[in-house]
């Protein structure tokens, strides 16, 4: 079988959907599937595997890429099936059967999500239109959680039997990285989910302020970057007199990220909306206690291995951090449960289940 995969979300730093594309394609190739990954520009990180071919199509915008360049490339490469791996992007006029992966519908779940766009109404209309046509055109839809499947059915009226839940895997930590200067092992709280309006980082910073008042030797580390959100968060840090206690290291490489995860006193990820929740599983795999949200997909993924809080309650977030960093028995229990939960998620299993859906679509 020869499968074409939309690789646009794997062109830059590999986070979220980019990790999904990299790991899924690698495991599919290991199972004997020929994969052709299509990009709009040269990727920063090349996905290495003997059965993976990478093709840069270019394109002045996403519509040209999806509706003109991609159909021609699918035909030229002779693929049997196309996998739109990032929520949208199924070509409307291509004759190649398609499978669509929907990770989340966050733009529709957050009020005023498109307010930062140059043309908010047009951006929202474009998103909804592309999502609807992709769902209709796809032979089968993969949802990465039951939560996302329910939202798809509710929002777009998609038949339940068209959607299959296939959980993403989790990469096991590799390499031995070093902590950024100024950090002491088990003396910081980590948020490793990136910076975005839905990540609820402003409330996390405020909650950490309560913890810091009692534990001034602790720091809060927030990875990732966002040129619109980060300055506002830094202003909040200054207003709360937390300068020096809250650290923004930006994007870090995989070795440094895993060093941060392993050495944290806990991960605190009070996201408002999440389609899956890689940061939760990363904590489980690394043996680090996890605090996260009691909403969206997180309870489904975390089960009883994490402390789940109301993400809109700064008091609950602060209380949970306080419990974890002061109660070693609780932390050890959470680590044990997390490691058990993490065993349920691996990329080879994801690839095998995805391959079965490919066969159904064909």
Brief summary:
With 362 residues, the chain is of the alpha/beta class. Helices cover 43% and strands 16% of the residues. The mean pLDDT is 93.
Keywords:
6-stranded parallel β-sheet, 362 residues, alpha/beta, 16% strand, Rossmann fold, 13 strands
What would you note in describing this structure?
The chain is α/β, with parallel strands linked by helices. The protein is built from 13 helices and 13 strands. It has helices at 17-30, 62-77, 106-109, 120-137, 146-156, 201-214, 229-239, 254-263, 278-286, 298-302, 314-326, 328-342, 347-361; strands spanning 2-6, 34-39, 52-56, 81-84, 98-102, 140-143, 163-165, 188-191, 219-223, 246-250, 266-269, 290-293, 307-309. It has a seven-stranded parallel β-sheet with strand order 3-2-1-4-5-6-7, with helices on both faces. The chain has a six-stranded parallel β-sheet with strand order 10-9-8-11-12-13, with helices on both faces. Strand 11, helix 9 (278-286) and strand 12 (290-293) form a beta-alpha-beta unit. Helix 1 (17-30) crosses helix 13, helix 6 (201-214) crosses helix 11 and helix 9 crosses helix 12.
């Amino acid at each position: 079988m020869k499968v074409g995969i939309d690789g646009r979300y794997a062109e830059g730093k590999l986070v979220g959907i980019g990790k999904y594309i990299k790991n899924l394609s690698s495991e599919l190739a290991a199972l004997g599937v020929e994969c052709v990954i299509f990009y709009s520009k040269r990727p920063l990180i090349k996905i290495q595997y003997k059965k993976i071919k990478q093709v840069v199509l270019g394109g002045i915008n996403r519509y040209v890429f999806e509706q003109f360049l991609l159909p021609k490339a699918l035909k030229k490469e002779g693929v049997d099936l196309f996998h739109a791996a990032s929520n949208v992007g199924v070509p409307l006029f291509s004759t190649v059967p398609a499978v669509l992966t929907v990770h989340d519908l966050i733009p529709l779940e957050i009020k005023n999500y498109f307010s930062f766009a140059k043309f908010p109404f047009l951006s929202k209309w474009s998103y909804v239109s592309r999502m609807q046509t992709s769902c209709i055109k796809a032979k089968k839809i993969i949802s990465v959680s039951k939560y996302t499947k329910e939202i798809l059915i509710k929002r777009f009226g998609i038949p339940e039997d068209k959607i299959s839940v296939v959980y993403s895997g989790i990469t096991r930590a590799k390499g031995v990285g070093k902590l950024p200067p100024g950090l002491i092992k088990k003396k910081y709280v980590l948020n490793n989910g990136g910076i975005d309006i839905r990540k609820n980082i402003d409330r996390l910073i405020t909650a950490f302020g309560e913890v810091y008042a009692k534990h001034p030797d602790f720091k809060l580390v927030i990875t990732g970057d966002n040129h619109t959100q980060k300055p506002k968060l830094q202003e909040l840090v200054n207003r709360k007199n937390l300068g020096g206690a809250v650290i923004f290291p930006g994007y870090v490489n995989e070795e440094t990220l895993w060093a941060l995860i392993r050495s944290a006193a806990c991960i605190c990820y009070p996201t408002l909306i999440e389609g899956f929740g890689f940061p939760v599983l990363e904590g489980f795999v690394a043996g680090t206690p996890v605090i996260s949200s009691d909403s969206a997909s997180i309870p489904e993924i975390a089960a009883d291995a994490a402390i789940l809080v109301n993400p809109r309650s700064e008091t609950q977030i602060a209380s949970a951090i306080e419990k974890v960093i002061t109660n070693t028995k609780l932390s050890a229990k959470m680590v044990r449960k997390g490691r058990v939960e993490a065993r349920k998620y691996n990329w080879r299993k994801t690839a095998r289940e995805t391959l079965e859906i490919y066969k159904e679509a064909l």
